[in-house]
Amino acid sequence: MIHLSVAIGRFFEALFYAILRVAGVAAGAILGVAVAGALLFLLARVLIGRKK
Predict the structure, then answer these.
(1) Neighbouring C-alpha atoms within 13 Å toward the C-beta of 43
(2) What is the pLDDT of residues 20-41, one digit of tens each?
(3) pTM surpassing 0.70?
(4) Other Cβ atoms within 10 Å of 12 Cβ, number
């Protein structure tokens, strides 16, 4: 019975870390898109400002 509880514990531990890994990748992707958008916005502002 002890072996079964250890296996179940390890399964839920692996599941927990997999969920955290996916959440971390998603958060990194969202952060990357936000930074790229901010840089493009600043670049567009500078280029529009030069034309005036």
Answers:
(1) 6
(2) 999 999 999 999 999 999 999 9
(3) no
(4) 10
